[in-house]
Amino acid sequence: MLHELNNLPQGILQLEAHELTTALAGPSLIHLPGRRPEPLFVSVLMHGNETVGWDAVRHLLARYEGGKSLPRAMSLFIGNIAAAAEGLRRLPGQPDYNRVWPGSEEADSEESRMMAQIVEIMRPRHPFASIDVHNNTGFNPHYACVNRLDTTFLHLALLFGRTVVYFLRPKGVQSMAFAELCPAVTLECGKVGQAYGATHADQFLDACLHLSLHPQHPVSAQDIDLFHTVARVTVLPDVTIGFVAGQGEIIFESDLDRMNFQELPAGTPLGRINGSAPVDLLDVRDERGREVASDYFTFKEGLLCLRRPVMPSMLTKDTNVIRQDCLCYLMERYGAHLKDAK
């Protein structure tokens, strides 16, 4: 499935994400030379409806003569262009491209073998850093994610912004696979269509191309807002959901996504439940994979409420995303753990 190239196809930088199938035969790994040989690895369109990465990269490369005069080599992976052509996260029957990298808990597939192939292609190239670029669907600040409390990873994330999320689940994500090779971050660049998302990602990638080394000094707690993802919340497949009364067994709050990155007190309602208790409707897993719904949610007077103070991220009102990915992640502040960074 993987197509490996040593130059950009003619005219590709003029194409929108949904047009890439006219220039590429499928998922493509494109190696571009630069003055410093250790490449910056950049992955875009892991989800076909998250176009910010491609928009940022094509504007960046256009400034460098179509990738012919880069200050550092770049290896660019353009992922699910078939889904991008349809404006979808993934096509029916496809696995999630950002859940099948080495270390995944998903079943073996052509896609998982392709991702393993990419890692092995990049290993002898000694990548300088890895950047995976995403949009999200709810109201969230721009932030970077890391999978290791490592000084170099944290400094790379801080180059994007002071809000940083550390997570260990879900498994099989691109940044976790590349963390074995180099400092790796995932960028979350706001909602699709917001121009600043592409501009911010473009500026960050350009800064990475100009780095000669990674800072080694410890990150100061006053320079970072560090959060730790403690649980992932999904709605069970046979449970109906909605945002208007009468639409489902769980009717979520109409402003649900405005709770993202808000430190919510115990008792905060997320929605109204018709029937069963929340532990019968939600699957909530901590970073060890244990079911912990009853630790975080409770049922009060027909409302789905938080049992303990928590900060959510990636709450969304897009029911397709809720079904294909999750309802949200739950986080805690993690600044006291900065001393653990190596």
General description of the model:
The strands form two sheets. Strands 1, 2, 3, 4, 5, 6, 7, 8, 9, 13, 16 and 17 form a twelve-stranded mixed beta sheet that branches. This protein has a five-stranded mixed beta sheet with strand order 10-11-12-15-14. Helices cover 20% and strands 26% of the residues. The longest helix has 16 residues, at 195-210. The protein contains eight helices and 17 strands. The two termini are 38 Å apart. The model has no long low-confidence stretch (mean pLDDT 95). α1 (52-63) crosses α6.
SSE arrangement:
Elements: E1 3-5, E2 28-32, E3 34-44, H1 52-63, E4 70-78, H2 81-86, H3 110-122, E5 129-134, E6 143-146, H4 151-158, E7 163-166, H5 174-178, E8 184-188, H6 195-210, E9 225-235, E10 241-242, E11 250-252, E12 269-273, E13 282-286, H7 293-296, E14 297-300, E15 303-306, E16 311-313, H8 319-324, E17 328-333
Parallel strand pairs: 1-2, 3-4, 3-5, 5-8, 6-7, 7-9, 10-11
Antiparallel strand pairs: 2-4, 6-8, 9-13, 9-17, 11-12, 12-15, 14-15, 16-17
Mean pLDDT: 95
The CATH class of the largest domain, by name, is Alpha Beta
Shape: globular
- Under CATH, the homologous superfamily of the largest domain reads Zn peptidases
CATH architecture field of the largest domain: 3-Layer(aba) Sandwich
User: How would you describe the oligomerization state of the chains in this entry?
Assistant: single chain
Give the termini separation.
38 Å
Helical content stands at 10-25%
The total number of structural domains is 2
Q: Based on helices, strands and strand pairing, what is the structural class? A: alpha/beta
> Based on DSSP secondary structure assignment, what is the total number of beta strands?
17
Low-confidence stretches: none
Strand content: 25-35%
> Largest sheet at a glance?
12 strands, mixed
> From the alpha-carbon coordinates, what is the Rg to the nearest angstrom?
20 Å
Order of helices and strands: EEEHEHHEEHEHEHEEEEEHEEEHE
Query: Helical segment tally?
Result: 8
CATH topology of the largest domain: Aminopeptidase
